[in-house]
Design brief:
Elements (H helix, E strand, L loop, with lengths): L3 E7 L2 E6 L2 E6 L11 H4 L4 E4 L2 E4 L11 E5 L2 E5 L11 H21 L4 E5 L5 H8 L3 E6 L2 H13 L7 E5 L2 H11 L5 E4 L13 H16 L5 E6 L6 H12 L4 E8 L5 E11 L2
Parallel strand pairs: 3-4, 8-9, 8-11, 9-10, 11-12
Antiparallel strand pairs: 1-2, 2-3, 4-5, 6-7, 12-14, 13-14
Helix pairs in contact: 2-3, 5-6, 6-7
Length: 278
């Protein structure tokens, strides 16, 4: 049985299993009735509400210590985090195999390990998928705790010594500096949030297209591959694919990040656009 499983979803929530722990947390897109009975949902050992995490049915229960799960070739650490996150995004696992294949093709074409830029890289799933396939990766995220978590995932996955630069930085500022330095990257991976916090914080509607323009200078006229994903309403696969084609010159295709539950429901959790240079 895989460590990551969507058991059921409905009434704006999802019931998932991360290794040994079953979690009940929000899923706004699940605007239908659950397929499984209430007693199945009662098996959740951890729940998230607006007030935060609770253990089982007890509002004051002790939260579990961090625990590992296996996701493809990687081992990643789960833990209850802010906003109902646990550090692992099952919907992204489906893209990691494509990344590994893209790195392998790029290495064969270039005759060297490809240089990959992983932006808004959070706890490192995409970064480590590329590193596992043999890429040299620049992992960039503005959150110091998230980058520390990603380094922990590298250790768990046997990639502590992989050629990864762990960078705590604002993505936009880093990309501008890399452009001034004349750096080049063969592959680009980014998973931008809808918005950030504070003055001048990231807003995807305003900032994504200009960032892609900057990235075009770093990738050059023949990038080996690009993967863009998002979780923002209005940014579906068609929109993301158009942005990648227009700004990076890659013949990208787009699609939905969908996880199918054990009960048969299909839960949309975002969108992607990706493409190799052909």
């Amino acid at each position: 049985m895989p460590d990551l499983e969507l058991i059921d979803c409905g009434r704006g929530r999802r019931l998932e299993r991360f290794g040994p722990i079953v979690i009940d947390r929000p899923a706004p897109a699940a605007d239908w009735l659950p397929r499984l009975p209430a007693d199945a949902w009662g098996q959740a050992g951890l729940r998230w509400f607006r007030r935060g995490w609770v253990r089982g049915d007890a509002r004051d229960g002790e939260l579990p210590a961090p625990w590992p799960v296996k996701a493809g070739a990687l081992v990643l650490e789960c833990r209850p985090a802010a906003g109902g996150q646990v550090g692992v995004f099952p919907e992204h696992v489906q893209t990691w195999g494509w990344l590994g294949e893209s790195v392998a093709r790029a290495a064969a074409a270039l005759g060297r390990p490809p240089e990959v830029l992983s932006l808004f890289a959070y706890t490192g799933g995409a970064t480590l998928a590329c590193a596992h396939a043999g890429a040299r990766v620049a992992h960039v995220d503005a959150s110091r705790p998230a980058v520390a978590w990603a380094r922990r995932n590298a250790e768990l996955s046997g990639l502590a010594d992989a050629p990864v630069r762990w960078l705590v930085d604002d993505v936009r500022a880093f990309v501008r500096r890399e452009r001034r330095r004349g750096r080049r990257y063969d592959g680009i991976v980014l998973d931008p949030p809808s918005y950030g916090h504070g003055d001048g914080a990231w807003r995807i509607e305003r900032d994504l297209a200009p960032l892609l323009e900057e990235l075009a200078a770093l990738a050059g006229p023949r990038p080996s591959f690009v993967l863009l994903s998002a979780h923002t309403p209005g940014h579906d696969g068609a929109v993301l694919g158009r942005l990648v084609r227009e700004h990076l010159g890659v013949p990208a295709e787009g699609g939905d990040l969908i996880v199918t539950s054990r009960a048969g429901s299909r839960l949309p959790l975002g969108a992607w656009a990706r493409g190799p240079y052909r």
